[in-house]
Amino acid sequence: MILHGGEPLLAGPARLRRVCEELTSAFEGVAELDLRIHTNGLQLSPRYLDLFDEFGVRVGISLDGDRAANDRHRRYADGRSSHPLVLKAVELLRQERYRHLYLGLLCTVDIENDPRAVLDALAELDPPLIDFLLPHATWDDPPPRPGGSPTAYADWLLTVFDHWQERGRPVPVRLFSSVLSTLGGGPSLTESLGLAPTDLVVVETDGQLEQVDSLKSAYEGAAATGFDVFTHAFDEVAAHPGVRARQLGLAGVSETCRQCPVVRSCGGGLYTHRYRSTGPSDAFDNPSVYCADLAALVRGIEARTATALAAPAVTGPVELVAAQQDLTRTLLALLNADIGQRGGEQWEAAWELAAGIEASEEGARGLNEVLAHPYTRTWLLDAMEPVRERSGAVDVVHRMSACLASAVVRAGLDLFVRVPFSGGRIFLPGLGELRMADEGESGAALLIATEDGFLVRREGGDAAERRIVRPDAAGPGWRPLRRIPTPGSAAGFVLDDLDPYRDCFSLPAAGALDERAAAGLAARIGEAWTLIGTKAPGRTEEMAGRLTTLTPLTGLPPAEPAVGRHGYGALGIAPDASSEQLASALLRGFRRAELQALRDVTDLYAADGSWEHRMPWQEETVPFSRLLTDTYERMALGVFDRRYLEGVPQALDALEGAAELTIDGKQLLHRMRKEI
Fold first, then answer.
1. What is the DSSP letter of 547?
2. This protein's superkingdom (predicted)?
3. Which of 125, 182, 354, 489 could, after both became Cys, cross-link 544 (CB 3.0–4.6 A)?
């Protein structure tokens, strides 16, 4: 609830107290009341501020900059400056006892003022927020443009932006924050920009319910709804055609705006500023009278910040792998926070052991390898829900302990790890499966690394029952994951047909392969890799070390890959595919997995599905995400058949002109153009 005007302090302290009491009472037990007042500050005094402190009313002040800027439009009728009194009001708000009520400063742009001096004057007052507003204007009554520049307001604001950057962004500026947010794929932060629906209704002093009051600058009665507080509900105002028109997002802007690449950021501008009395039947179905300014402002901010704002994950494979690792570690930390005391002593012991493992360089490397295993992410995502539902903590402890045991084995650490098990088996992520007891039995095993592999024995069992296991060789009770060497990659591929968390694709995971089937599939994967390396060695270099895990699926077409709900580096493949089909699946699947990994850590596009795009290689229109994915994959498949590259340049042009692209999406597109 914003007490607005005119000048609301003219109501006086007594009446404002009644307003605050009435609103506070009405909302008590119904909703949390966020009460604010917007004032020019001339009458602000401790008497008012004590009242506002009592009711939690936060105060915004209108101030257009330094004295010269303020006095251009805000003098008394007798010519005296109002600037000293506004500064006095702000100084009151900055006092320790009132500082929590200080909402910020609102500045109306006047391009006759010095933009740098305006920012300096406002920032000197240490506001929590500065809000710059374009002066109300329409096509019938356009804004003044001394010199006739179509982008005079953008030029003024960009000068402010540059100075704001030079000063180290000393205070948040809502206008700039909104543009930066939408450029990165986030929401708009102000009514005057972006496609977010407006949620404002004005209650006039006589009880009339009106649309946003800026509409009054369009024409007489433009804000009227015909409703009042005595006989109508707010729901009726929400259903009013004028209000609904500003809640339609992209559908609520003109056709010209819908086709403009910056519409996600500018949103067609403030609804009021679109008014033109002549033209379409809907007088607001126009671009903003500030259209050229808004486009120049968005593009200017993007040009100034794109390099700094781009996620490193988009520009380099090493950074993408690091970002994925950070994401997995964040999920693990969240799981630890969620599990709390429900994990009991076993979880606490496992968490302490993890810290001990990571304390050494070898241990940290081993733990990183386990966390990089794609199905570790699957486990973490699956674990979050049952833990939050206050169940499933036991299963979480089992997998966590197995992960730590795998890290110890990889690092060769002289540390005992206790691993609980059920079903008679333990799966060590990325290594293989241990049979500890008969099917259905539960218990725990103790593992420790040795020079040749690791020692394992059942807890409470006879010491003579212990056995040494070599991770890469089958033995009694031990089934290792098959490793497929690939030239140019020290790690090669893991053929994972055992991990219980591998079943995370759209099609079911195949059962464990017998030795003959596994050997045949491994041989064909090796041939596929050689085939890719012969035709395009750059592709194998791209995939080496990043595509790590292949899982056989049932029902998958031979040349098709599958990307599931897991971390970076795994693909589902058809176990009966030929080497040529596998080569195609690896190329296509790696590109698909890379896009998914990028989307995990940054926004490449926003508002997907709001526009339809035609793909050059077929008549079907598709959302932006589909056009991007198909183009990205076809560029890789062009290795085997250059016909896949037909239409790709046109697709890149379509992608580049799309409104959905974010700063990171444009970085990716730049990379794609270099590649093609």
1. -
2. Bacteria
3. 489
In this prediction, residue 391 has a pLDDT band, given cuts at 50, 70 and 90, of very low
Tokens of 1: 């609830």
Residue of 215, 232, 296 whose CA lies nearest to 260: 296
What φ, ψ does residue 667 adopt, rounded to 5°? Answer: -65, -40
Rg of the chain taking only CA atoms, in angstroms: 32
Give the pLDDT confidence of 268-293 residue by residue, as tens digits: 999 999 999 987 667 899 999 999 99
- The whole-angstrom separation of Cα 651 and Cα 647 is 6
Q: Are the beta carbons of 96 and 44 closer than 8 angstroms?
A: no
Q: What is d(CA 549, CA 374) in angstroms, rounded to the nearest whole number?
A: 7
Task: Say if CB 571 and CB 585 are below 8 A apart.
Answer: yes
Q: Which residue has the higher pLDDT, 245 or 185?
A: 185
Please tell me the total number of residues recorded for the chain in this structure: 676
Q: Is 39 helix (H, G, I), strand (E, B) or coil?
A: strand
Backbone angles phi, psi at 413, to 5 degrees: -85, 145
Residue 600, sorted as left (phi over 0), alpha (psi -120 to 50) or beta, turns out to be: alpha
- CA dihedral of residues 307, 313, 319, 320 (deg, nearest 10): -170
Task: Please give the DSSP secondary-structure letter assigned to residue 75.
Answer: B
In terms of DSSP H, where are the helices of 124-225?
Answer: 152-166, 174-183
| Residue 144 zone, left/alpha/beta (φ > 0; ψ -120 to 50; rest) | beta
29: left (phi over 0), alpha (psi -120 to 50) or beta: left
- The residues pairing with 445 across neighbouring beta strands, listed in sequence order, are 419, 458
pTM as predicted? 0.88
Q: Please state, as a whole number, how many other Cβ atoms lie within 10 Å of the Cβ of residue 238.
A: 12
Give the H/E segment covering residue 550: strand 549-552
Identity of the residue numbered 558: P
Quote the DSSP letter at residue 207: S
Instruction: Identify any residues that bridge with 37 across adjacent strands, giving them in sequence order.
Output: 3, 59
**Torsion of the alpha carbons at 85, 87, 88 and 94, rounded to the nearest 10:** 150
**Structural contact between residues 604 and 624, judged by C-beta atoms closer than 8 angstroms:** no
